[in-house]
Amino acid sequence: MQKHQKYFAVISKSTGDLLPYFIAVANGAISKEVVRKGNEAVLRARYEDAKFFYKMDTQKKFSEFRGQLSGILFHEKLGTMLDKMTRVENTVAELALILGINERTVPIIKDAAALAMSDLATSIVTEFTSLAGIMARHYALRDSIPEEVVMIFQYGKFGTNLS
């Protein structure tokens, strides 16, 4: 809504919940009713798309998406995203120890590396790329993957409590 249509969401001041309203700004003279109906139709279609993709994705376990990374090219000379993530998975434990990360944390990091970026193969992230990492966290929690593993998925949200 914010990225593609440039609308502002309306959030409840008391609860912080998203409300079923939006604010749009138009330049020049317009027919408010025509513009409102058009904007609502676009949002409804995007919502229906998201609902469809989410329903498709949730028919599988999050871990099942990892294999589909083989169909996503990372780099012409370096292979697919699956190739990349396999390399990451094979090196994180050694790297964690070199960096002085607590040994108790290494299994958590290895588990996260085994599933990291798997959401790139989901339908919803393919369609709504800005949800990468966010959907990984959501799908992983839905599948009862431990929170300490899941917190690593949301790109750019790394904590400092891993040492």
From TrEMBL:
Signal peptide range: none
InterPro entries attached to this UniProt entry: Gly-tRNA-synth_bsu, Gly-tRNA-synth_heterodimer
Single annotated GO MF: ATP binding
Pfam families, alphabetized: tRNA_synt_2f (PF02092)
Top-rank lineage group of the source organism: Eukaryota
Example GO biological process: glycyl-tRNA aminoacylation
GO cellular component, one term: cytoplasm
Reactions catalysed, as given in the entry: tRNA(Gly) + glycine + ATP = glycyl-tRNA(Gly) + AMP + diphosphate
EC number: 6.1.1.14
Family note: Belongs to the class-II aminoacyl-tRNA synthetase family.
Protein name from the UniProt record: glycine--tRNA ligase
Protein's organism: Zea mays
